[in-house]
Amino acid sequence: MRPAPQSDGAQVLRANALSFPSVLMQSITHIAPAVGLVFVLQFITTMAGIAAPLAFAMAFFIVLAIAVCMVQLALHLPSAGGYYTYVSRALNPKAGFLAAWMFFLYEPPTPALNLAFLSFMLHNIFKMEAGINCPWYVFFLAAVCLITVLTYRGIEISATCVMWLTGIEILIVACLAIAGFMHPGDGRVHLEDFASWHSFRQKGFYLAVVFSILIFTGFESVAPLAEETRDPKRTLPRAVLLSTSLMGLLFVVCSMAILTGWGNSHIATFAASTEAPVILLAKRLWGTAWVLVLIAVTNSILAVAIAGNNAATRVFFAMGRARSLPAVLDYVHPRFQTPRNAILFQTFLTLAIGLGVGFWIGPDQEYYVGGVTMTLGLMFIYCAGNVGVFFYYRRERPAEFRFFLHFLLPLLSTISLLWVTYKSAVPLPEPPVRYAPILAAVWLFAGVVVMLTVRGAAGTPLLPRNSVNIPATVALEGNAQGG
Asked: Which of 76, 120, 160, 413 has the most CB atoms around it within 10 Å of its CB?
């Protein structure tokens, strides 16, 4: 039986399906700790050298400030629309549409880019270790089918898978970090080796910070799950802040441990290794048990693809409900209470992006170029959200306005975002990554054109009036003056 629509004609997702542990692991999963440490650490080291942990630390503080700002909006505006809802309500519907437009550059491609990279990795490992030359796209298609089934069948099933996969990957990565500290390679082991003022003058250091911010992104992926979360006004802020803090500690400490295990005097060989250096380190420290690292990375990528699917499809659903996207996306499966059409649409996007771009520039380059492009798109979303914090509290909740939380912190985090973005794009990095800033700028320009020329693009979205999750007093998402 099809779920009963609300009084305004919109359908509802399954309320109270997610508890705090599920939401917390969704946020941690989207950050993908194993992928960041096993593969992306090498990419960051090519730009920042021994200062890679410092790049992680800088990114962490910037992202933590952004997370605190986001929480200020999540406290009062829980919705499947996420930043689309926040910016529409705090500023205006057109700004919300642009935030959603830039979101399309980030969340929907996330499963495609990650699964393409996983397929590339498995292709190479099977070829080197077992002599099996299985095309990367075979792994990709199998992974897409698995992810689609899990997200289609219900939010509880996919959330449970995420919890187990993420728990396993964190345990394995933590054990490898401990082994790295216990068995250091050649070179000194001093904290000052990882952080010095000279690091800030390196040509690629700020691009390393930008890519490190990409590693931390995902904390905001829990926002679109608000309508399916128990007590979202309390659960979402706790999950966002705790996941960001835990992952900041994990990345900084584990990156130092891995580089220590490799040997501080051989950082250039770590960056230039043709085989994943963290896997080489695991082979040296653990022997045949290195396969645990492969399991951790596979778990990590599958989990982040599930998390990305969950977040993207809920925003598609919310925008379909708002009529900012076709109304066909505003459909809930009568049995599983998942946004069926949004999930099918996301699967199509995953196949199109993953296979199309993968065959064009290669699945590995797809991940790196797409990663920087998505991060630059996120910069716009975060900045819009930061501005929204100030106006929302000044206009609608002046009695709750706090100078530090609602003005100074959003201002400082926005300046930090703009600063690292400028430093990473001027001068342009080497190709193919140099095309990322251009792609992000073109996408933003296209969004402005669509907003100005397509009638009704901004929509007039409604927050669902779910008696459990969202108070009936919450009015139009797009009405910046309503309360």
From this structure: 413
List the structure tokens of 178: 């401990």
Tell me how far apart the alpha carbons of residues 310 and 156 are, in angstroms, rounded to a whole number: 11
Query: Is this model's pTM higher than 0.85 or not?
Result: no
Q: Classify domain 20-453 by CATH number.
A: 1.20.1740.10
How many other C-beta atoms lie within 10 A of the C-beta of residue 423? 15
- Greater model confidence, 99 or 334: 99
Q: Which of 137-146, 268-277, 362-371 has the highest mean pLDDT?
A: 137-146
What are the DSSP calls for 187-255, one per residue?
Answer: S---GGGT--GGGGGSTTHHHHHHHHHHHHTTGGGGGGGGGGBSSHHHHHHHHHHHHHHHHHHHHHHHH
The alpha carbon dihedral of 472, 27, 246, 165 has a sign of positive
- Per-residue pLDDT band for 251 (boundaries 50, 70, 90) equals very high
For residue 13, give the amino acid letter: L
- Round to the nearest angstrom and report the end-to-end CA distance of the chain: 35
- From the list 338, 372, 395, 464, the residue with the least C-alpha distance to 9 is 464
Q: What is the mean pLDDT of residues 90-116?
A: 88
**Whether 310 contacts 290, CB under 8 Å:** no
Instruction: Say what the pLDDT of residue 366 is.
Output: 87
Residue keyed to tokens 């929480």:
71
Model pLDDT, residue 336: 76
